[in-house]
Design goal:
443 residues; alpha/beta; 2 domains; seven-stranded mixed sheet; four-stranded antiparallel sheet; binds pyridoxal-5'-phosphate
C-alpha cells in the first residue's frame, strides 16, 4: 500500500483550503525580498493584475485555438509585442510556452529538423554551447538526440570564448547558443561575434534571453551600456525570452521567437493519421493552461515600456548599491563584469557555501553555485527595499565565517563543497539522480 492512501471520503472544501494554506508556513519568504532566485517580485500592483488575469483564464485550454480564440489572440499578440521589443520585424513569429526549458526544447527541435531538411547528410547533429549556457540545452539535446559540445568560457570575463567556439565547430554542428545574460554570473555573451561565425558556417544561432528578454531592452533604454543581443544581429535565428522571470508574471510563461515562419515551421509537430483527428501542436505540451497566456498579455499591457523601465531602474539601482557594498567587504568580490541585475559573489579566502548557510540563519535565501564556488544573486525591484539590512547582515556573516576552521564546515555547505570538488563528474551526476529519486517520495 502506498504511504498516503487515496482518500475514501472527500474533505470539506474549507478544511482542504485551510490545510493547503498552512502548508505554506515552511516555504521561503519571497514577498519581502529575502530570496535571490526563483521569484521575480515587482510589488503588489503588478501581482494583482497578473494574478487576476491568470484566474480569469484558469480553466481555458490553449490546446485548441478554435475553441478559445481569445487565447490565440493573446498568445500571438504577446509573441508580436516581444518581437517588437527584441528587434524583430513583420516576419518575426513565435509561440508561448510553459517556461524557458520548453522554449529551449522547441528551439532545439526546430534547429535539428531544419538541419535535417537542409543538411540531410548530418546524422549526428551537434549543439555547440559555452559552459555557462543553461542546462535546459543539455536536457533538450539529451531528449532530442543531439550531442552537446561544451566550450569553457573565458577565464577572466566568464563570457563565451569566441575563438574557442569557432574552433569547436565541426561539420556536424547544427546549432550554436549564447546567453543574454547567463544565469550563473549574469554575463552577456559576445553574441554579434558568435552569430557572425554561425552565419558564415550555415549554423542556426539561438540567443537565450530567458533571463534578459524582458530586462535588457529596458535597461538599454535607461541608458546603461548593453551590447546588442537580439534580432538586430543578422545571424540570430531564434530567441527564448521568459515572461515569468523579468516580465513579472506567475510561472508558466515564456516566449520562443523565430526570425521568420520558415524557421518556426520546424518547431511544429503534426500527425495526420490518428482516429481522433489531425493532431498538430507547436509545443511539447498538448493541453495548455490559459492562465499564463492571459497573465502575460495583461502584464505587458499593464506595464508597457514605461512601467518596465521604472521597475528595472529600481532593480538596477539596487544592484549597483549591492555590488558596491559587497566589494567593500574584505574577502568578497563579484565575478566578471555583469551589466544588469544578475551577478555572483565569490571569495578566494572564505568558504562561500558556509557564508550562504550563515545568511540563511539570518533569513536570507541565496543559492550556492560551483565551478567556481559562488553565491547567486538575481535582483528584482523589491530588493530596492533591502539593500542596507542585507549588506549589514552579509558583513556580520563574513566576520563569523572568517573565524571557522575547515573542520567546522558541516551540513549543506560541506555537501556543496564535496559535490563541486568531486573529480569524477559522472559520480556527481549519479549522486544528483539518486538524491532526487529519494527526495520525490512521501517521507
Ligand atoms: C538563462 C536561462 N535559460 C533558461 C532557463 C530555464 O528556464 P525555466 O526554469 O523557466 O525552464 C533559465 C532558468 O533560470 C535561465 O536562467
Amino acid at each position: 500500500m502506498a504511504k498516503v492512501e487515496f482518500p475514501q471520503k472527500g474533505m470539506p472544501g474549507n478544511d482542504v483550503l485551510s490545510t493547503l494554506r498552512s502548508l505554506k508556513s515552511g516555504d521561503s519568504d519571497y514577498k519581502h525580498g529575502r530570496m535571490f532566485s526563483l521569484i521575480f517580485n515587482a510589488g503588489e500592483d503588478v501581482a494583482r493584475v497578473s494574478e487576476e488575469a491568470y484566474y480569469a483564464f484558469i480553466i481555458e485550454n490553449g490546446l485548441s485555438p478554435f475553441a478559445f480564440p481569445s487565447l490565440l489572440k493573446m498568445e500571438t499578440e504577446v509573441a508580436s509585442m516581444m518581437a517588437d521589443l527584441l528587434g524583430g520585424d513583420e516576419n518575426t513569429v513565435g509561440n508561448m510556452t510553459s517556461g524557458g526549458s520548453e522554449s529551449i526544447m522547441v528551439a532545439v527541435k526546430a534547429a535539428r529538423d531544419y538541419a535535417r531538411a537542409k543538411k540531410p547528410h548530418i546524422t549526428q547533429p551537434e549543439l555547440l554551447m559555452p559552459l555557462s549556457a543553461h542546462p535546459a540545452f543539455n536536457k533538450a539535446a539529451h531528449y532530442l538526440g543531439l550531442k552537446t559540445v561544451i566550450v569553457p568560457t573565458d577565464k577572466k570575463t566568464l563570457a563565451a570564448d569566441v575563438a574557442a567556439m569557432r574552433q569547436a565547430i565541426t561539420e556536424n554542428t547544427v546549432m550554436m547558443v549564447g546567453s543574454a545574460p547567463s544565469y550563473p554570473h549574469g554575463i552577456i555573451d559576445p553574441l554579434t561575434d558568435l552569430a557572425e561565425i554561425a552565419a558564415k558556417n550555415g549554423i542556426w544561432m539561438h540567443v537565450d534571453a530567458c533571463v534578459g528578454g524582458l530586462e535588457l531592452p529596458f535597461v538599454e533604454k535607461l541608458g546603461y551600456p548593453i551590447p546588442t543581443f537580439d534580432f538586430r544581429i543578422p545571424g540570430v535565428c531564434s530567441i527564448s525570452a521568459d515572461i515569468h522571470k523579468y516580465g513579472f508574471t506567475p510561472k508558466g510563461a515564456s516566449v520562443i521567437l523565430y526570425r521568420n515562419p520558415e524557421f518556426r515551421q520546424y518547431q511544429i509537430f503534426a500527425y495526420a493519421d490518428w482516429p481522433g483527428g489531425v493532431y498538430a501542436t507547436p509545443n511539447v505540451s498538448g493541453s495548455r493552461p490559459g492562465g499564463p497566456i492571459a497573465s502575460s498579455w495583461a502584464t505587458l499591457k499593464y506595464l508597457g515600456i514605461e512601467g518596465y523601465m521604472k521597475l528595472h531602474k529600481q532593480s538596477m539601482e539596487a544592484t549597483r548599491k549591492l555590488i558596491e557594498g559587497i566589494e567593500t567587504i574584505p574577502g568578497l568580490y563579484v565575478l566578471g563584469k555583469p551589466l544588469a541585475t544578475v551577478f555572483a559573489i565569490g571569495s578566494d579566502v572564505l568558504n562561500v557555501f558556509a557564508l550562504g548557510e550563515k545568511m540563511k540563519e539570518f533569513r536570507w535565501y541565496i543559492d550556492s553555485q560551483h565551478l567556481p564556488p559562488c553565491l547567486h544573486m538575481t535582483i528584482s525591484p523589491i530588493h530596492a527595499t533591502i539593500v542596507e539590512p542585507f549588506l549589514a547582515d552579509l558583513q556580520a556573516a563574513v566576520k563569523e565565517i572568517a573565524k571557522l576552521k575547515p573542520e567546522d564546515i558541516t551540513g549543506e555547505a560541506a555537501m556543496y563543497g564535496m559535490i563541486g570538488s568531486m573529480p569524477d563528474r559522472g559520480m556527481a551526476k549519479d549522486f544528483a539522480v539518486q538524491y532526487l529519486n529519494d527526495l520525490y517520495r512521501v517521507h
